[in-house]
Structures are given as C-alpha cells and as structure tokens.
Write a structure and sequence with these properties.
Elements: H1 3-20, E1 47-52, H2 54-62, H3 65-78, H4 86-96, E2 99-104, H5 108-138, H6 147-159, H7 165-172, E3 178-183, H8 188-197, E4 208-215, E5 218-226, H9 227-230, H10 233-243, H11 246-257, E6 260-268, E7 271-277, H12 297-303, E8 309-316, H13 318-323, H14 329-342, H15 353-368, E9 375-381, E10 385-391, H16 406-409, E11 416-421, H17 424-452, H18 455-486, E12 487-500, H19 509-514, E13 516-526, H20 529-548, E14 565-568, E15 573-576, E16 589-592, E17 596-600, H21 603-615, E18 624-628, H22 630-646, H23 654-669, E19 673-683, E20 685-694
Antiparallel strand pairs: 1-2, 1-8, 2-3, 3-7, 4-5, 5-6, 6-7, 8-9, 9-10, 10-20, 11-12, 11-18, 12-13, 13-17, 14-15, 15-16, 16-17, 18-19, 19-20
Helix pairs in contact: 5-6, 5-7, 5-14, 10-11, 14-15, 15-17, 17-18, 18-20, 22-23
Length: 698
C-alpha cells in the first residue's frame, strides 16, 4: 500500500485517542490508584488530562429518571431513538477499558511559545498587508495588489527580515511531544500492538520502522517519516511557481525538509500507549512512583482526593500554562492597526488617534496581565460534580488581601451572589482605559464626519461638542475623583426571590398577598464616606444642568432630579425618592454607612444584608465568589404558575394554558439541578473550587 495506509493509521489513532477519553472504571473496588499510569510518567511531562470511572458514571446516568426523560423528549419531539447509539458506545467501552489519559512531554511549552511568537508576527504583518489593500480599495491610500502579490509581500516580510527571527523560529518549531494511553484489559493491549505491527509490511518505503526500549522489559514500535522524503519534486516545483521568488522558495524548502514526525505505540501492562512527535524521546516511564509526575507538589494536592469518586484530572507545568498566555497580545494587535492607520492618505486627519490606539493596547495588556503558576485539579462526584484545583493563573484585578464581607453573610437561599474585591490600581487602569476608548471614539467620530462631508451631521456633532461634552466630562470628573475614591475595593451583587409585591392598582389581590418579586442589591464597601457625600452634592446640579440643555423641553419644564427623602436606620442611612406604590420591602433606594454602600430595590433587603455583614466575623474568605441557587428559582417560578392558574381571568384561552403547561414541563425537567457554587481564592497559592449540585428528578 501507499501513503493512503499511513493516513488510515493516523486517522485510526486519532479516533482511538478521542474515544479513549470516554473510558472509565468497571470495578471501582479494584481501582487502587485513581491516576493510573500517570504514576509511571516522568516529571518532565508538561501537560496531562485524564479520565477515570466514566463508564460507571455513564451507566448510572443511563438508569436515572432524568435520562429517561431526555430519551422521552428526544423520541417525542425529534423522533430520535437513542438506542441506535447503544451498540457503538458499548463496543467502544469494551475495547477501550477503564482508564485513559493524554498529555504532552518535554519541549511542549517551548513549541507553544514559538507558535505564539510566529502567530503574533504573522498577524502583525498580515494586518499591515491586508489593511493596505483594503485602504486602497476604499480610496484612502495604501497599495493595490493582487492576491499573489499580497502573499509574496507577506512571505517576503516574514522571511526577509534582517535578523531572521521568523525563519529561525520556524526552523526550531517541532511537533508537540504527544502521548496517550488507555487501559484496555488483560492481554488486549499486546494484541492491538500486534495488529498494528502486522501492518508494517504494507507501509510505503519512506516510512522507517524501528524498535526501542521504554523501560525494563517494555519495548515499543515506531514509524517515522521525514518531510523531505514525502515532499516530492512535483510539490516543490508547484510551490516555487506559486511563490515566484527563488530565494523565498529556498528558505521555505529548507524549513520543510527539516521536519520529521514519528508515531510510536506499544503496551505497558494493560495500557495501550500511542504517541507522536519529532522523535520518541518523550515516550518513557519510571518504575518508582517517587520519581514520577505523581511526586511533584501539584499532584500531591490531587492525591489528597484519591478517596473520592474521581472522574477527571489535569496538570499543567508553569511553563506550559504560561505558553497559553500572551502578555503582549493587545499591543501586538494595536501595533498592526497603527501601521494601517499611518498608511492612510493625508486628506483625513488621524494623527491624534494613532498614539491613542497604541496607548489602548498597553492599557489592555496591563489589565489582563497574569501571574502564572503550575496547576493540578480533580473532578469528582459528591452531591453532583465538584472540582478542586491548586495553582494556575491569577485573576486580573482581584485583590486577595482584602477579606470579603458580603459572601459569608449572604443567606444560602439567595438566588444569585457575585462578590469580589477589586485591586485599586486595577481600578485606576480601568478608568484610564475607559477614557482612552472615549477619546478614540470621539476622534473616530470627527474623522467619519470629515470623510462623509455631511454638513447637517457635522453641525450636530459640533452642537454635542459645545453643549453636552463639557457637561458629560464634568460628571465623569466627579465619578473619577469622588466616587471612585470614596468606594472601597469590595463589591458584589445579591438577588433573592423573597420580595413582597407592592400594592399596584389593577393587580389581583391574590398576587399582592402571596406573590414574590426579586430583590436586587448592589453592594460596595466604603473607603471615604465624605467623598461620596461630596459627589452626590456635585452630581445632582451637574446632571440637572446637562438635562436642561436637552432640546424639545418646554421652558420651565426641564427635567430635574427630584429631591430625596432620608431615614436613619440601625446600621444605615437610606436615601430614596418618593414614588407611588412603594413599601418597606419595595423601595428603590441608596443606603450608606461609614463602611457599607447599597443600591437596592428593597430597603428591607439592605437592612437584612447590613445586619448580617456586621454580625459576621469570618475574615478567611477572599478572591472571587459566585453562587446560583437554581432550586430557589424553580420554586419561585412554580409559585407564580400556581398563582396565575388560580386567576380565571388570566387563564382563559388555549394558548395561555399551553404556555403554562410547557413551562411546568421545563421546570419539572430542571428539578434535578440544585445550583452552582464557585470560588477562586488564595491560600499561599491560588485555589479553585466549584460545585455543580445536581441530582435526579422524581
């Protein structure tokens, strides 16, 4: 056979590897080591993903009421019989076994960094080349070129730079050192290896076969292909014709000829192992677990969950995780954009925009800059699904030195909680970034008007600049100087579903008596109450002044912010506007103390939250917290459906009845979903915990 057979083998390997990710344990009691063959991998392994006990998990799902309901819906709504997949799924499980993993060995991070470097350089130059073509088509200058000329120009810039960095990086770039394995059962691994080996006689002559030792008594096979042996004369000539430049073609040809791929496979105990890379140096194992990947600190953390029903786990070295983060990605993007802007002809004035675009790129890079650490995590079954990890990337803008007050104080039956503490330097950068974006948009507006030449639009823009812009800038200055400096670092949002209905005319009495409405509270800590008071005193006249300039208002009838009313409570002073149909529970208001600040739809809710915060003495929580109580939402929705069904005036047609019935079916289906909890915090190292609380429906 020819290269077609090789393609078939590679395709089979890929299918095998993807399917292997679904493998799980058949006998949980026999599983002494939940991390399987990872205990044999060397410590220079840079990335690992593993799955275990998935078949057991899948079988339990298959027996659940939820799955039966899914099958029922698929059959009724789509006519799809899920049983058609049962046989292939079972066959896959029988072949694959009870444990699987895949990973990347030494050199992966270096190659990822090379890819990132190549991508950034390519994007930068391609933006310039393509942007120049686009500007030419729009009549803004630039260079008008054919697609062939554009490609040649792109290659020339990439490979023709004086320092040869792009060419050097391409030469150094190699295939990642990939390895994957699956526990396929007694004797089956050796049998599959034998079947693969039997295909070697039919391989094309450019495929070199060999044998190598991976550990004592364990031998693997390898198939290697050099690109120079596959890249024949016809392909070379075609490439040269398309490029049209002998010098560039020579460089590309040398780069291609330097590449090689080697596919390795073998059996290690009950595990079938497949790998590929530039060679087979990463296919190696150790006999002693103390010398393996399991011995590093991250996996020691993961081993602490070995008594759990683990479904999945992962590991990233610091170098590998860093390679996925490009610290200068925005600057690289804006650099290419500024080069496009510089090529615009002089009829349009954009000189003020160019430095702003460059500035924006640096600001966004600062806002998204991360500190990187190695990481390991485990996914396990406990009241649904839980995830725990250590290390990893930092959360931009989050100050873990500030203990959270809100999260520990919020009741577990609240529907939604979001809580974090903002780094104040990050806040300053966010403000500066917002100002830069506003300046760019304003400059772009001026440029667009200049290009369009519409006198009416130009006059409207001048009116905005003359009448509204100074007033908006004044309001923004108050927010920037007073509000931002008056508020503390901690902020959050709380939504519960326990609010009382206000007495609104026309609303059924049953709704007012028994109906509940969401209560939304936006919280922030207070750093300087005096600044906030001064901000309010300055903002009211500034907003009124701007509102008075809105065209179309009758003289003497201009919009004005109504005077506020105030009341002092035990912990807070509350300010509100006198509105109809309000109550103590439904009262849009601002509440403040020397330490706490609330914007809320309910005074009662803020009183409850402030009292809980003051009573709470927990200082151990930091970072980022997210909680969603789906169970409360379902109860809330069911209660309202019940109230609506009792009202005959509302339920008097088939369409409404059908809507209610569909809603009840959806809610019934979702009863197994209880909620979701997420925490990203720091204890010496970053930690992450989340809990997807799910169960079966009745």
């Amino acid at each position: 056979m020819s290269i077609k057979l090789l393609r078939h083998f590679i395709s089979f390997s890929c299918v095998f590897l993807l399917t292997a990710l679904a493998l799980q344990a058949k006998d949980h009691e026999k599983e002494a080591k939940p991390f399987g063959l990872v205990s044999k991998l060397t410590q220079d392994t840079e990335i690992i993903f593993g799955l275990t006990h998935f078949e057991e998990f899948a079988n339990e799902i298959g027996k659940s009421n939820t799955w039966k309901k899914i099958i029922e819906l698929l059959d009724l709504q789509a006519g799809f019989d899920i049983s058609d997949l049962a046989e292939p799924w079972g066959a896959a499980m029988d072949v694959i076994g009870e444990d699987a993993f895949f990973g990347f060995g030494k050199g992966t991070a270096a190659n990822l960094n090379r890819l990132t470097k190549l991508s950034e350089e390519y994007n930068k130059i391609s933006y310039e080349v393509a942007g120049s073509q686009l500007l030419s088509e729009l009549g803004f200058g630039g260079n008008e070129s054919s697609p062939e000329e554009l490609m040649k120009d792109l290659l020339d810039q990439l490979l023709g730079d004086e320092n040869g960095e792009f060419e050097k990086t391409l030469n150094e770039l190699q295939l990642p050192a990939f390895i994957a394995g699956a526990k396929v059962g007694d004797g089956m691994a050796a049998q599959l290896v034998g079947q693969f080996s039997a295909m070697e006689d039919q391989l094309p002559p450019f495929v070199l076969t060999s044998e190598f030792d991976v550990s004592e008594g364990v031998t693997f096979r390898s198939w290697s292909v050099a690109a120079k042996d596959v890249f024949d004369d016809n392909a070379r000539n075609q490439m040269r014709q398309e490029i049209g430049d002998e010098k560039l073609a020579d460089k590309l040809e040398k780069i291609i000829d330097s590449k090689k791929v080697e596919v390795s496979f073998g059996a290690h105990g009950d595990f079938l192992i497949v790998g590929f890379g530039p060679d087979h140096s990463h296919i190696k194992f150790v006999d002693n677990e103390d010398e393996s990947l399991m011995a590093i600190s991250d996996f020691q953390f993961a081993k602490g969950y070995a008594d759990k029903k683990i479904l999945a786990y992962n590991y990233f070295s610091k170098e590998a995780l860093s390679a996925f983060n490009s610290p200068g990605q925005f600057s690289s993007l804006t650099e290419g954009l500024t080069e496009i802007l510089k090529s615009i002809n002089e009829e349009i004035d954009i000189e003020k925009i160019i430095p702003l675009v460059t500035k924006l790129g640096k600001q966004l890079d600062d806002a998204t800059r991360l500190t990187i650490d190695s990481t390991a995590g485990v996914l396990y079954r406990e009241d649904g699904l839980k995830w725990a990890s250590i290390g990893g990337a930092s959360v931009p803008g989050v100050d873990t030195n500030v203990p959270l007050k809100l999260a520990p104080a919020v009741s577990k039956d609240a529907f939604l909680l979001i809580n974090t503490a903002e780094n104040l330097d990050a806040r300053k950068n966010s403000i500066a970034t917002f100002e830069t974006v506003a300046q760019i948009l304003h400059g772009a507006g001026q440029t667009a008007i200049q290009f369009q030449g519409d006198q009416q639009v130009a006059e409207m823009f001048e009116m905005f600049d003359g009448m509204f812009r100074p007033k908006l800038l004044k309001i923004w200055s108050i927010f920037k100087s007073k509000v931002a400096n008056g508020l503390g670092p901690e902020g959050g949002v709380v939504v519960d579903l326990k609010g009382s209905m206000p007495k609104i005319p026309g609303v059924p009495a049953e709704f007012v008596k028994n109906g509940k409405v969401p209560r939304i509270s936006i919280f922030n800590s207070v750093k300087n109450r005096k600044h906030l008071a001064e901000a309010w005193e300055q903002l009211v006249p500034a907003i009124n002044d701007m509102a008075a300039t809105i065209p179309g208002q009758e003289p003497g009838q201009e919009f004005q912010i109504p005077d506020t009313l105030s009341m002092d409570g035990k912990n807070l002073t509350t300010h509100f506007i006198g509105l109809p149909f309000v109550s103590n529970d439904f009262l849009p208001s601002l509440s403040i103390s020397d330490e706490l600040f609330f914007l809320s739809t309910s005074k009662k809710a803020t009183d409850e939250l402030s009292a809980a915060i003051i009573e709470n003495k927990n200082k151990d929580m930091n970072g980022l917290v997210l909680r969603v109580n789906v169970e409360q939402l379902i109860q809330f929705a069911n209660a309202w459906i019940g109230l609506i069904e009792k009202n005959e005036d509302l339920v008097n047609d088939d369409a409404t009845i059908e809507i209610l019935n569909n809603a009840k079916r959806v809610l019934e289906f979702g009863e197994g979903v209880k909620g979701f909890d997420y925490k990203r915090y720091k204890k010496d190292r970053w930690r992450e915990d989340w809990h997807f609380n799910i169960g079966d429906i009745k």
